[in-house]
Inverse folding.
């Protein structure tokens, strides 16, 4: 009898565990590191003072620390309802990440989406990663990581265009968009299309605050190709009230090729303010080379060049090299070194969220430990 | 500044040397297996062997393309005889098995060696 009841109990526990697993998943990563940097600044201002070198505890050696909850419900006929809540936290301080308004933070600052997937593709509504950032990560050997990558290069363009670094509402392109509707097509012989539209919600204006983007991707035969078009109105709202002005545009083309253990990547981008190109008109060029020595150990390197097309004195060249070693399936240790030659008012960073002094050369080195759960 | 340049050059050289040695190794083993292929197939020319290897490689990629969840742009497939080597990354550990099974199911594939690793997708 005792045995019987324990059997029932085990069954009951298994059943509830299985049910929980299929409906909601808690996931995330904690990533902490130590960084040395030869120059620093207290802001992204083009005239910021060089505060000298710094040695610091830093969140995010590979990507940010974050956590999230996601779930899926199968509603039959090949259709699913999906949701995702996800936000970053600082592993050094416990603080939350930036929101879309200046100075604000949000618990789920990365993603708050509800959507449907099925034979037609995937549709998600809410704050989410823009399709463009996946396209960039796909075509960068350094995978748009937090240390010396296409992510920092693209943000360098934004810093040059006046982004203060205190909100996620950047002037060129976007990493996250609030209130966005994103459609992702299924793959057709390796090709897929993503379309985004985010209504602005500005009273009296149909264009005010809107964003739209289209991303074409190809992934097969060891080759990733991507083409990005991003356009938005009234972004970088730090100082302005919405006027419906078309002031944010990014074009980006990238490729990555993997053969045996070698990966190479290259990309070209143009970011500008289409209403007033004399305010912002930049070029971005990247190149990457990586080698996977064993399934546990790889070295990746990248070169990132930024150019101000309005003033040739402003340009920036960055080199980054990083080694990543997987201690287990979930834990990675890394060591990375980067060098950036910023000229004029440029201030491309090496480490995400760690401003460098503008117009001078900076070196940075970082070691980190990342555990995913 | 000079030391930094030195460091950069050294790192650059290290990577280049590593890739070259890998290429060289690869070339050597390719030659070796081409040699065996010639004897096995009773006098197939090196060119014909290479063509057959490339054709098999394309067949494996075509089979992977049917699985819409797999990004074969991050995967390197190479073939020598019927032996297929997989390198590169997948976003999820479960996909390693899927890719290996798909490759094994392709006609003409006699063995599959996987060096695939997991790289979580951006933002996850």
């Amino acid at each position: 009898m005792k045995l019987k009841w324990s059997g029932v109990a085990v069954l009951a526990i298994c059943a509830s565990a299985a049910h929980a697993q299929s409906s909601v998943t808690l996931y995330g990563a904690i990533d902490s590191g130590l960084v040395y940097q030869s120059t620093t600044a207290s802001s992204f201002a083009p005239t910021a003072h060089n505060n000298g070198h710094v040695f610091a505890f830093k969140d995010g050696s590979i990507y940010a620390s974050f956590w999230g909850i996601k779930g899926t419900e199968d509603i039959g006929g090949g259709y699913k309802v999906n949701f995702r809540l996800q936000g970053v936290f600082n592993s050094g301080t416990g603080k939350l990440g930036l929101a879309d308004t200046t100075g604000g933070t949000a618990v789920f600052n990365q993603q708050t989406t509800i959507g449907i997937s099925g034979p037609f593709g995937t549709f998600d509504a809410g704050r989410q990663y823009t399709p463009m950032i996946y396209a960039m990560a796909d075509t960068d050997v350094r995978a748009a990581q937090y240390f010396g990558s296409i992510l920092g290069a693209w943000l360098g363009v934004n810093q040059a265009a006046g982004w203060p670094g205190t909100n996620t509402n950047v002037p060129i392109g976007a990493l996250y968009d609030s209130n966005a509707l994103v459609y992702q097509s299924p793959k057709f012989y390796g090709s897929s299309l993503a379309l985004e539209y985010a209504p602005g919600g500005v009273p009296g204006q149909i264009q005010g605050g809107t964003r739209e983007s289209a991303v074409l991707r190809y992934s097969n035969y060891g080759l990733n190709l991507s083409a990005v078009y991003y356009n938005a109105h009234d972004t970088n709202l730090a100082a302005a009230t919405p006027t419906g002005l078309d002031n944010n545009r990014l074009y980006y083309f990238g490729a990555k090729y993997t053969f045996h253990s070698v990966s190479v990547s290259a990309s070209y981008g143009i970011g500008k303010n289409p209403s007033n190109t004399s305010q912002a008109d930049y070029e971005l060029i990247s190149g990457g080379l990586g080698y996977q020595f064993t399934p546990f150990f790889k070295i990746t390197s990248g070169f990132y060049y930024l150019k101000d097309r309005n003033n040739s004195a402003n340009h920036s060249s960055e080199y980054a090299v990083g080694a990543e070693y997987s201690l287990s399936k979930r834990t990675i240790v890394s060591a990375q070194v980067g060098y950036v030659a910023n000229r004029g008012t440029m201030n491309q960073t090496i480490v995400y969220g760690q401003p460098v002094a503008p117009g001078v050369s900076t070196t940075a080195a970082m070691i980190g430990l990342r555990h995913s759960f | 500044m000079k030391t930094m340049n030195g460091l950069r050059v050294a790192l650059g050289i290290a990577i280049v040397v590593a890739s070259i040695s890998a290429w060289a190794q690869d070339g050597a083993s390719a030659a070796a297996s081409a040699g065996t292929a010639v004897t096995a197939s009773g006098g197939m020319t090196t060119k014909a062997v290479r063509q057959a290897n490339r054709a098999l490689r394309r067949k494996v990629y075509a089979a992977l393309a049917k699985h819409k969840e797999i990004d074969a742009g991050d995967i390197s497939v190479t073939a020598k005889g019927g032996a297929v080597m997989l390198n590169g990354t997948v976003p999820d550990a479960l996909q390693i098995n899927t890719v290996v099974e798909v490759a094994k199911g392709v006609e003409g594939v006699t063995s599959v060696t996987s060096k695939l690793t997991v790289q979580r997708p951006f933002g996850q």
User: Anything to note?
Assistant: Residues 16-39 of chain B have pLDDT under 50 and may be disordered. The beta strands of chain B are 75-80, 83-90, 111-114, 117-118.
